[in-house]
Amino acid sequence: MFISEQTEVNLTIEESTWVVDTDVSFHLTPNRECFSSYTAGYHDYVKMGNDGACRIIGIGNVCLLTSMGCCRMLLKDVRHIPDIRLSQTSTGRLDDEGYSGNFRNGTWKFYKGNLIVARARKQNTLNVMYAQVSQNEANIVPGTTVGELWHKRLCHMSQKGMQMLVEKDLMPKMKNMHLDKCVDSLADKKNRAAFRSRALMRRKTVFELVNRDVCYVDARSHSGGQYFVTFIDNYSRKLWAYVLKSNDQVMSVFKEFHAG
Fold first, then answer.
1. Annotated catalytic residue 23
2. Using CA atoms, how far apart are residues 163 and 174, in angstroms rounded to an integer?
3. Whose CA is closest to 108, among 89, 133, 93?
């Protein structure tokens, strides 16, 4: 259970804020609107860290859309306690529900199989997870099936690959999953025409053609230069480089190069 002993917890409380707690026995929330399913009249009490007791008035499931974007966590048997301040997730209950987690470098990571479904970061003395409440199991664009939606989320994975993830319980189960032809996938697999090759036009004598390039760099040289100019002979491919303090020195350096 979350306890604050003479410590001020500086945390912005929002409906999307969930504290990951290793001591609470159940998931808890003060927000009635979070529940996707709800049963009122659950008469029981929970003991708080200050030896007080708060009444549980309901129980149900909460579906969270985590910060990972397309991942959802279904919290089961969440207790509705209006008198508490923070929504809390129980790591013990998450373990019972098939989630695993580890803590490293101030971050909790929660897994469903090999898939990271949620993250919680340490703020002061609390591990906080931000997640939006999802009333439905999946948000689907009109005219888009669940299979097509996951096909796009998984970077246009093949139907066979998606079926393997379903069998390993790494994706929501989909009945009679069938993917129609994906225009984007077909376009990606098309062969692109190669650029037409052209013979390199090399000059026949030295200094017949000299290529010049001026470059700027952020760091100054020991002599104070912040530009350099290169001259490349097209025939021999020999290169000359000069350091410049300003780009208006290019012409004078070129005259020096030409005279030499």
1. no
2. 9
3. 89
